[in-house]
Amino acid sequence: MARALIVLTVLAVLLAGCGDDGGGGADGKIRFQLFGDAEELKAYRDLVRDYAKDTGREVQLVEIPDREAHLAKLLTSFAGGDPPDVFLINYRNFGGYAERSVVVPPQLEADDFYPQPVEAFTVDGRTQCVPQNVSSLVVYYNVDAFERTGLERPAKDWTHDELVRAARALTQGEQYGIGVEPGIVRASAFVWAAGGEVVDRTDDPTRFTLDTPEARRGLARLVELRRAGFSPTAKEAESRSLEERFIDGSLGMFMSSRREVPSFRTIEGFEWDVAAFPRAEENFTVLHSDAYCVAKGGNAEAAAAFVEYAAGEKGQRLLARSGRIVPSRRAIARSPEFLDPSKPPVSSQVFLDAIPRIKRLPTDASWTEAEDAADLALERLYYGDLSLDEAIERIDRETRPLLGRG
Amino acid sequence: MSTARSLGALLVALLFVAPLTFLVSGALREPGLLPTDTFALVPDPVTTAAIERAFDLVRLGRLFLNSAIVALIAVPIAVVVASWAGFGMVLLPAKARRLAVGLSLVLLMVPLAALWLPRFVIFRSLGFVDTWVPLIAPALLGMSPFYVLLFYWSYRRVPRDLIDAGRLEGLGAFGLWWRVASPLVRPTTFAVGALAFVTTWGNFIDPLLFINDPDRATLPLGVHSLAAVGPTGFPVVLAAALVATLPAVIAFALVQRRFLQNTREAGWLGR
């Protein structure tokens, strides 16, 4: 799939702008393409239904089950001149669209939103899409397992050393202490917390900077979780995913973004909560944010109206209630819809406290490819197939040509 | 000798039966249970709940019907066109024939992903996005150069004298194909039919790119979307996969009988 995407990207560049009269239609029915798991998609189906009820306008949801298929379909339909009117995309995959200016920038009251996600979708001073969330990397933990083991709940400003102690204590018998999917989007938080940097320039990266002592320290901390046996082996993670392990109670802690909440709310056997990403020399976590983008050439007017609704107060309230998003609007993020203590996680405030210490990854056109390449090396490093030196060297060698291209 | 052969065949069969067994027994597991590390051949309890849930979550019936319509149109067209093309290549003069075979081989090597975009542009400009036309259209070209080549290799073994005799009897190209050549390559016809069916039935990328309207989606899209039901829904995914796999297995079982029978009958060709 990755190679297919590369081929497509090249073709997309060659053919960009091939056709632009676009679909849409006068009836105002628009297409909205997104990907997500069943619980997430349910929240968006409700959104579209409420929109139809409130405005009488129809939106066709084009639901794609995974990221690769979503990006492949987006690229093909854009290059082929028939893009969806609205699509939801992560800032890390957005660069190619921004540079080819194929989206219609929205009218945005930027003050209503947290600045971090808005900045992530801003190119040349112009905000390109409306961010829907300002999620970040946090630590989900099994409260019952913590109590059984005699561990205190993580404090607001807990440290990496405390995380390691908890992981060690929670690792017993069939149960693992912690699960992290090795990849740049997780590793970046470790690197930043250790005082390192992931790339030389976030706005226009030319290379990864994982070879500094600080960055190496951060990566080593991530890898140590596996080397010390606190997290599942490659085979184990392959046979049963980390999410599954957390849901069935055999994983004490799990690092991920807000997106786990809808499916974790189906957990009945034990209590769970979230804690901040632990600090080390520095105190940072990594931005997870998606935005609604309106495609040029489609039914831009109807699309913009839908985006205004979806990313507006009403839409955000609805998605916040489903548990899926950390609302990008300040007012909704501080509202009971998001902070509702009757629904887990009790400590949703953790996501809001994290916002000031959020850093983000690059958004430029070649980033998706560079990240895919780096992820492969990090996975092999994490599971012990590569040494730290080899992994860093490989990432540098494979991504330099990609990043330098721009 | 024959025992060793049977044993070998059995081993190979086991290799292919294993995933199928996993599919069936997994589909009969109760959904919502936590996945286990061990594999139970007969799940406890045996239940069709996962299959019902799969029909519940995605409109498997509708998707099944859509897939069936697409396959029913595309497969016969593909078989006939590939057969014509293969036969046509045999009748070509030597130089042109070598060129045609070479060209087919080259086309066979073009990565499919490289065709996504050009095809999308073509079908979009013709107004066929969100219709089944892009899913069926490849059949008009025999679906794959491989199928054309399969026919070509089969027709090449039809003795030239037979064709010349047919010509003397006043048969045209179509008559030669229909009356003389195609009856002799029936095993190939069935094989290509089975392959074309599996290709069409399992096609994921074309419906992904061309179909937006859920009413026109085909089975692979539905099965794929179930993969997002989460860890405890594994039996549901397998149940949908089972529903999607059965027609292919049945089609193959039916065709295989004809295939073997014909190989035996066509003794003089089977040397």
Describe this structure in words.
- The complex is a heterodimer of chains A (406) and B (271).
- Chain A is 45% helix and 14% strand.
- Chain A has 19 helices and 14 strands.
- Chain A has helices at residues 2-15, 38-55, 67-79, 95-99, 115-120, 143-148, 160-170, 184-193, 213-227, 234-239, 242-247, 261-264, 300-310, 313-322, 330-333, 336-339, 349-354, 367-382, 388-405; strands spanning 30-35, 59-64, 86-90, 122-123, 126-127, 130-131, 135-136, 138-142, 176-179, 251-256, 272-275, 285-288, 290-294, 358-359.
- Chain A has a five-stranded mixed sheet with strand order 2-1-3-13-6. A four-stranded mixed sheet of chain A has the order 9-10-8-11. A three-stranded mixed sheet of chain A has the order 7-12-14, with helices on one face.
- In chain A, strand 4 and strand 5 (126-127) form a beta hairpin.
- The two termini of chain B are 20 Å apart.
- Helix content of chain B is 70%, strand content 0%.
- Chain A binds chain B through residues 3-4, 7-8, 11-12, 15, 18-19, 23, 31, 36-39, 41, 60, 62-66, 69, 72-73, 76-77, 79-82, 84, 239-241, 243-244, 247-248, 263, 266, and chain B through 34-35, 37, 57, 111, 113-114, 116-118, 120-121, 124-125, 129, 205, 208-209, 212-213, 224-225, 227-233.
